[in-house]
Amino acid sequence: YELEEYPFFGYMRGGYTLEELRELDAYARDLGIELVGCIQTLGHLEQVLQWDSFREARDTERVVMVDSEATTRLINAMLDFWSSALSSRRIHIGMDETHDLGRGRFLDINGYERAFDIFNRHLARVNELCREHNLEPMIWSDMYFRLSNPQQNYYDTSHPVPDDVKAAIPRNVQLVYWDYYHVSAEEYVRMIRAHRELGFEPLMGSGIWTWSRLWYDHGKTMRTAVPCIQACRQEKVTELFFTMWGDDGAYCNYDSALAGIVRCADLAFGEEDENRTAARFAAVCISDYEAVIAASGVNALIPVEGGADFEISASFLLWDDPLLGIVFDDYKRRNHEFDLRLLDQYDEILCRIQPCAEEKLAGDLEHAVNMLQLISLKLELRGALEAAYDLGDRVALRDIATTLIPATIAAVWEFDATFRRQWLDCARPFGLERIQARNAALAARLEETGLRIREYLEGTIEIIDELEARPPLSAPVHWLKSYAHISSGSWII
């Protein structure tokens, strides 16, 4: 969002204006919806703090400097904006995941101070500013639990929050318990009760899984949201909302999440029959519920011998470097036949959704078709490349260079075209440049893969170094978190 006195706040991010938010607020009110600002006033501010004009408000790369006058002015401007933009007096001021609070410039200037005390003092100051703007704040609750244990684990209740910390939490601030991960109702019940032991009635924040996904993940959402709803009903939690995040580039086709919104709303209001959900979805969203859910299968589960199933990241497979194969090889170490299993699953999904490819109102199914076809080609390409190189099959390598690689490059540009269309249907152009750069890099690296194969076949090079560098299948697997992890052995993007 735009702050008039801070021209680099939201710079090149497509921020909302005050007038636009007022328009959205009026539209929401007509539908009986309370629109609430959900902002950050402590951490998760790296997009702002990257600019030099905010250096006086910077503690670390992501966290503002507590006790700084520059920070107070900035937050006051934020709250002034939101108090004018929306009719609701509630505001979510964030303050989650501030793992390095007080460990940057704050430590240099003030020396060590217990993070709990820094956090509560900052909350008290922001709460005072909220009161001046007639706003009722809520915060994510995780730091009270994280700072209580050395691993900073949100869900560790074995280390109690100190009594003096509890006593210093402003009583008017609402604590929001977010949890998008647990698959048993008992875990949610335990944490709901832990919040009540702090002396607060929690709001529950569950997740409709869109982040680090190209398409809404129905399986993951149902595995986590259903037990959350059950626990909230058992514990008589009165407020529950669902988040949809955009980690690593916000590249999800967000309209596909309408299927998850409708299903989660039905479950929260006691509707168990998914056929009724499908009928409601068809009536309201004018789209095929089963097709949208089928496309969600791009986010597949693959079995691991002697272990739990692991979750395939379709986006990581899509942007996996074709010559380095960091993701492909990591998944191979988990299941040697993962690519064959996945190709079979994707074929079945394509057969289901291709007849619906013209539907775009609640998920762009043509884009889903392009996505699945591109990932399938990349799986086929990488599997064939490794096999042909290891066997010294020069005929197969030539066929990969002359046929499979050009087909995959063409699929990249088809995906890029529908990605652009669905992005601009629901968002401003800012941020699109990041994904277009990834797609262009993928096409360039496919060209490079073909060139390396031809050089190898012509004898210009004796080996293809990138393929020689593959670790053995017995090597440890990795936790791959973002594009920076999967596109290169270097952290530079």
Low-confidence stretches: none
What share of residues are in beta strands? 5-15%
How are strands sequenced across the largest beta sheet? 1-2-3-4-5-6
The major β-sheet equals: 6 strands, parallel
The SS-based structural class is alpha/beta
How large is the count of helical segments?
A: 20
Distance between the termini: 26 Å
Radius of gyration from CA coordinates? 25 Å
State the shape: globular
Helicity range: 40-55%
Count of strand segments? 8
The ordered H/E elements are HEHHEHHEHHEHEHEHHHEEHHHHHHHH
Return the average pLDDT rounded to an integer: 97
What does this structure look like?
- 52% of the residues lie in helices and 7% in strands.
- By secondary structure, it is an alpha/beta fold.
- It has helices at residues 18-30, 46-49, 69-85, 105-110, 115-132, 142-146, 163-168, 185-197, 218-235, 258-268, 274-285, 289-295, 314-319, 326-334, 338-353, 365-391, 394-426, 432-458, 465-468, 483-486; strands at 37-38, 90-92, 136-140, 174-178, 203-207, 240-243, 301-304, 307-311.
- The radius of gyration is 25 Å and the shape is globular.
- The strands form 2 sheets. It has a 6-stranded parallel β-sheet with strand order 1-2-3-4-5-6, covered by helices on one side. It has a two-stranded antiparallel ribbon with strand order 7-8.
- The longest helix is centred in the C-terminal third of the chain and has 33 residues, at 394-426.
